[in-house]
Amino acid sequence: MRRIQPGVATSSTAPDDDVIDLGALVSTIWRGKFVILAALLLAVFIGGIYAYVLATPMFRSTAVVMLNNREEQVVDIGNVISGLGSDRAVLNTEVEVLKSRVLLGKVVDELDLIEDPEFNKALRPPSALSKTKTFVRDLISPTPETPGGLNRDTRQREGTIDSLLAALSIRNVPDSLVFQVTVETTNPAKSTRIADTMVDLYILNQLEVKFEATEQATTWLTDRVTDLQVSLEEAEGKVTDFRAGTALVSPEALAGLEVQVKETRDRIEGTETAQQTAQTRLAALEAAETPEARVEASGDLQLQRLLPRLDEPGIAQAFDTRYEQIVARQRADLSRSESQLQTLRTSLTTLEQQTEQQSQDLITLQQLTREAEASRLLYEYFLARLKETSAQQGIQQADSRVISPAVTPLRPSTPRKPLILAVAALLGLIAGTALILIREARNRSFRNAEQLETSTGHAVIGQVPLIQAKRRLDAIAYLKEKPSSAAAESIRNLRTSVMLSNVDMPPKVIMTSSSLSGEGKTTIALSLSLNFATMGKKVLLIEGDIRRRVFGQYLKTEQKDGIVSVLTGTKSFDDVVIHDDLLDADVLLGDKGQANAADIFSSERFANLLNDLRRRYDIIIIDTPPVLIVPDARVIAQHVDATVFVVRWDRTSREQVQGALREFESVGKPVSGLVLNQINPRGMKRYGYGNNYGPYSAYGSKYYLN
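The structure assignment produced for this chain is given below.
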């Protein structure tokens, strides 16, 4: 018997797991085309119900506003608030201003939207869904009313503003100063009215802001001018009072005093020099004793003329008298010089005091004058600014203007029915495809012999199609009446594979088993019995599944006793064996006993019975219970020559088959071959195997008469 190592695949049977087989993927999707189509149609139907029935038509209206950053001024005076710039920060700021709750609140009040149920949710009748949500929310986290909270009217107004904000969208056209203010509501006229009111109040708000700023500036400037006027009057009064309380003070007079001081100082200096000269001369005159010395000290011409005549009578006396006069005159000049010097010093002190006083007075006067002048300049500046600001109150311009008012829409903007249907179709297509791929990925069954052999490592010795019969009894009749059908040929191929599994010693005792019930092992056992009988073999069919005993559904017999009666000695084999005309073979039914079925088949009597039957029959076929449910099959396998393991097509999972095969291998009796049973030819075509796979290919139909 050919055996394939589990988990080992050749290049022709096991594709690389890391490579996606696009052909298989496309085939899988194509097989599920009806499911995908159904999902697509369902999605389109649901989308259509939403678009045409459930969705509320919404109408969108847009007003266009442009920021006016041109400085268009009627008069050339500085503005209190300058025009807006055009950088990104300014544009983003204006967008936020348009969405501000203050502006939206004015729109709500202007249009009385608080009385509109579309914006005031409190006016809508609560739906069942909202009631459920409220109940669940209150149940999970109750929110009791807190003292000092918002009153009902305020809450409704804030909720209305929230609803208006949700219906509003502001968009700045790229690389421009243009804003698109879009409002979407259930009524076209309402959308237009809200959009127009929105931009009008936005522009009015700009004017109000500028007017309020100008008015505040005017009020402040008026107060400031008044204060400055009082300060100016006080400063000028101080200057006047100071001038009135002091002598005439001026820089020219102060300069004249400084000239007098300088001249006086020069005179004092000259007088002091003359005094020193006079003192020196007087000392020299007083120190001279001889006439010659006196003449030299005085330098007087008369004394010089009298000096040579001193010897004459009276000349000496005249000389002395003249000299005394000179000394006396010198003493008088010195005294006069001292008196004059004292006078000059007194005059200098007086002039210096006058100069210092006038200098201080001039400084004080200049300071008072400067303060008065500064007050005058401030007063004149603020007075001029006040006049400019007052003039601006009537010429303020808004920073924006409407370039396109809102237009009443003729068709709803949402729902976009074609788009909804297209998206629904796409989602349905994706969902259907995902469902097919998920179902395919989760499928663990076998759909062809190649998969079964690769997964288990055992050879597939038969592939039996699904027999179109309403009753199990009709299945055997179908095989007998249509010996050239595909089902009959598949049983014939199975028989051949079983007999050739051991050419030297063809199996004589064959058992059929499966992982679970419902996989068709009993039908295979009966079909093999019929096929061997048609060859002229003497065949015995034993019902080894004595727990369920289903042979009565296939055969027409009233026999109640069976193999248990034989093994317990109650009946003999010849007493209970029956011959079925439909199968043209002997049948040993199963009957109910007191002992456990596994214990019965483990007995020596069962082994002896099989040995006796081997001599009487050419072929013995035993139908056994599922191996994963009860241990009977593993016990019976110890006495048979070949084990045919049945796997139901597209149903039995890989884990079940592998687990069942391990059960047989654990007792040292591996199965002889696998049978892929109840193959649906239409299903094979649906899975992509119908046209190129073995007995179910298109050309195989020419050989069968179904």
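Interim note for the steering committee: Residues 1-16, 71-77 have pLDDT under 50 and may be disordered. The first helix runs from residue 22 to 31.
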